[in-house]
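On clarity, I found the account of how folds are encoded harder to follow than it need be. What matters is that the chain and its backbone geometry are given together, residue for residue. I therefore recommend that a typical entry be quoted early in the introduction. An entry of this sort, consisting of the sequence and the corresponding backbone structure tokens, reads as follows:
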Amino acid sequence: MAATFTYQVRDEQGHLHTGELEAGSSGAAAKALRNRGYTPLSVEEKKQSALQKEIKIPGLSGRIKPKDVAVFSRQFATMINAGLSLLRSLDILAEQTVNKTLTQAIKDVKTDVEKGRSLSEAMQRHPKAFSRLYVAMVRAGEVGGVLDSTLLRLADGLERQVEMRGKIRSAMTYPVAVLGLVVLILTAMLIFVVPMFESMYADLGGTLPLPTRILLGVSGFATSNWYIILGVTFVGAYGFRRWVSSEAGRFTFDQIKLRLPVFGELTRKSSIARFSETLASLTRTAVPILQAMDIVADTAGNAVVAKAVRDVQASVKEGESLAGPLSEHPIFPPMVVQMLAVGEETGALDTMLDKLGEFYNAEVNATVDSLTSLLEPMLMVVLGGSVGSMIIALYMPMFNLINLIK
């Protein structure tokens, strides 16, 4: 489980910085800071007082959804554009925001701004609410005097992200529901229906057909050793979760996801769309390319893509172009590399990245639609085949008995 760490670091110019970030351990936090180009001086886990601690239900409490931040950003931009002061806007937003965790974050940001911190510095202290990408773009908007338009771009990006996730989730709901139904039906038949046939066939005597013997054996094992099966399932699920939480496990799992038929292509396209949109937003707001790539790697959502971006970042540090090192990573198709090369040559990198983002978002939509139409008939075949095979195996001895009588 990730914890929040407070840190004190120095940058390459020797300036002192403090802040907070989430990581699995203090070592992971220090490594993340070094990857950003900082020299860690101290990294300590943030402790909560007894009054601050509360019972939390995993996945429900304290969660801030991208949709909540998108609504906040759009409303914030509207207020600033209308001429309201920063503090007045934050005050209104704190009152009308529904999410309690985000409300508290907004109040804390307002307090920090009143103390003299910049908006981006205040937001940086709340990584659960405002990502590194968000903070970097707000900082660029403050410097350029275009905070309202920057917030609107952030809102647009978050809304596209929410829409895409919702579409993928809705496409996956049906397959998961059908597979769950298959497991439920097969389990019920193995535990309740098959034993009834077993006692009936025991009275008949004779040799049962092989499929029936296999089915009765599986049913007997499941009925007698259900607690072992349940225990192994829980231990396996826990072990898998721990493995995926590790750096090596996450990288391997993300590699496997990229190699899956159909789903791998969907993962790759959505990762490239996110890479393109994030880098476009950062370069447009004049964030330095090395810092931008650092943020892109942190927000990639896939360890394989993140490693590729880190490798490219290291090459760019040594004076190479962006497109050249990118071509060495198979996850990025030739079209992406060529368009980025043209963008670098013409000075229109953000425009090319925007076009790539639009193209791959459209590709993701098309892949999701085709995936839905492909999976529905396949799952019905799986459902019918599984239940049908079990019924045939159960009734085969009866068919043999009828033939003998005839």
Observations:
- The first helix runs from residue 26 to 35.
- Strands lie at 3-10, 16-23, 39-45.
- The domain at 57-130 is CATH 1.20.81.30 (Receptor-associated Protein).
- The two ends are 67 Å apart (CA to CA).
